[in-house]
Write a structure and sequence with these properties.
The protein is mostly helical. It has ten helices and four strands, in the order αααββαααααααββ. The chain has helices at about 30-40, 50-60, 65-75, 95-100, 105-110, 120-140, 145-150, 165-180, 190-210, 215-225, and strands at about 80, 90, 245, 255. The protein has a two-stranded antiparallel sheet with strand order 1-2. A hairpin with a 5-residue loop joins strand 3 and strand 4.
């Protein structure tokens, strides 16, 4: 679902599961909270709102020292423009979560994939999942168990020998994609998209593990649904079809008839879009 197709937030308390664990909060936390409180008062549905002029005067949004904070609110995905001229901005879900938690959100979570995920729980889960997946893969390589572990990441029926060279390139693909995702940039090659599918699965497991008194099933389901936004960074979500096992009339597993299936493993690293040709990606032939 595209960002513009998302249902509007209903307001109210939106729990963030990591508030009590957060450290190294965003350095402009107090200023952010002040501006978000003003937007909450000013947004559609508010019972006692300011006009945009009153809001700017009250919060000093036009003052040079505050303009950077105002831009940060939008950059971090805490608010979005409203179509209502009397209410120029409204809080995003992330903005509601940040405000309700008193800003007790780690700066790493707040800044991560800010243009992709409108849920702090999703951002945090993907960060945790990325670290776990990277550690599992690097540990497997160090222990000489890489062939089995890396093979488990590939689509079913992949007839690929996962030798040391391929393991290194897949690990580099994961690392590169995590960096791109932090800045809301698209995958650089098919291998990175394949790792992204695994990252989503790992993040779902992380979210499952958090369910309890402070993190409900409903919050978990919302955060899981938000994971699908990762595909807005790709042209499409076709890569997921590689992981769907298809059967022939006799019930035998067959490879899906997708263009990707005709690619050799080396072509998984052909560069996408305007990604720099460096490291694990290579120029298209």
């Amino acid at each position: 679902m595209k960002r513009t197709d998302r249902p509007e937030s209903g307001g109210g308390h939106v729990p963030y599961a990591g508030a009590m664990e957060s450290s190294h909060q965003f350095e402009q936390r107090e200023d952010l909270l002040k501006i978000l409180s003003g937007i909450a008062r000013n947004q559609p549905g508010a019972t006692n709102y300011w006009t945009s002029q009153e809001m700017s005067a009250e919060l000093g949004l036009d003052e040079p020292g505050n303009r950077g904070t105002t831009l940060a609110v939008m950059y971090l995905g805490l608010a979005r423009e409203s179509e209502d001229e009397e209410h120029p901005f409204e809080l995003s879900k992330v903005g509601e979560q940040y405000l309700s938690s008193g800003g007790l959100v780690g700066a790493d979570v707040l800044k991560f994939a800010a243009s992709v995920f409108d849920d702090l729980n999703t951002r945090r889960a993907v960060l945790v999942a990325g670290a776990r997946l990277f550690d599992d893969l690097s540990d497997a390589m160090a222990l000489g168990q890489g062939q089995e572990v890396f093979a488990s990441l590939l689509p079913p029926n992949s007839d690929v020998v996962v030798d040391g060279n391929l393991q290194a390139r897949l690990l580099a693909s994961l690392s590169a994609f995590l960096v791109r995702l932090e800045f809301s940039q698209p995958a650089g090659c098919l291998a990175e998209e394949v790792l992204a599918v695994n990252l989503i699965a790992e993040a779902e497991e992380v979210l499952d593990s958090w369910v309890g008194p402070e993190f409900t099933e409903e919050s978990r389901d919302e955060a899981v649904a938000e994971l699908e936004e990762i595909f807005t960074l790709f042209d499409d979500s076709d890569v997921t079809l590689l992981f769907v096992e298809q059967l022939d009339n006799a019930g035998n597993a067959v490879s899906p008839p997708r263009t990707y299936e005709s690619l050799g493993i080396d072509e998984w690293f052909d560069v996408f879009y305007s990604t720099p040709v460096t490291g694990h990606v290579r120029a298209r032939r």
